[in-house]
Amino acid sequence: MRLQKRLAEAGVASRRGSVEIIESGRVKVNGEQVLEPGFPTTPKDLITVDDRLIEKEEHVYYLLNKPTGYVTTVKDDLKRKTVMSLFDEMDKKNRIFPVGRLDFDTAGLLLFTNDGDLAFYLTRPEFEVKKTYLARVEGMLTKVAIKALKTGVAIENYVTRPAQVRVVEYDKRNMTTLVQIIIHEGKNQQVRKMFDTVGFPVKNLTRIGYADLTLDGVERGSYRPLKIHEVKKLFGEIKKR
Q1: Is residue 89 over pLDDT 80?
Q2: CATH of the domain at 19
Q3: Are 60 and 94 in contact (CB under 8 A)?
Q4: Which positions are catalytic?
Q5: Which residues of 85-111 are buried (b: 16+ CB within 10 A; e: fewer)?
Q6: For 116-148, what is each residue's pLDDT tens digit?
Q7: Is residue 110 located within the same domain as residue 220?
Q8: Alpha-carbon gap, residue 241 to 11, rounded angstroms
Q9: Number of domains observed in the structure of the chain
């Protein structure tokens, strides 16, 4: 098994995060420093991170309803509030980390796990895991803008994949539109940039769905463990691809 996958299975970090840890020189195999993420290992090999022996952990999965005002990271050098502060200490002992991210000013559904493999696949655009958002945008969203969003718009050097767009409400008094949008990627601030591109800046944004998971029964700032059938369904989404 490749070294970065071994670290991911042990809950050290996501597979991508494990690559960074290895390349930073913090990992040893049988006492020897290894800098190659694809280094082959066997079950008999002793692997340490920062000289601490790793072992495969029982995987856990949580769904958080993130409030705005929190950064999606395990630690923050600027001492800002992180999403990890919303978890009980006992649950954090499982070395969980967020699957993907939500911006500081974006609220809603965020998954956490110590299963690096699942996190890796869920955040890869080629697996097309759907993400559903409610956006309150400035102005009355036009049919031209909706068509552009559904077709794909250019943000920076990237053209978005077709999105599903549905107007929930036109608020003529406040000159805003409430829109549901479903995307299958997860670029940095993608939804905000998409609406900026078509001329309707986002006032507030909430992710209300991830794959088939929703925020039902989870209050803002609270979280719950995923049920077994929900976890199996997430793995099922990956196997379809």
Answers
A1: yes
A2: 3.10.290.10
A3: yes
A4: 103
A5: ebbeeeeeebebbbbbbbbeebbbbbb
A6: 888 888 888 777 899 999 999 999 999 999 999
A7: yes
A8: 24
A9: 3
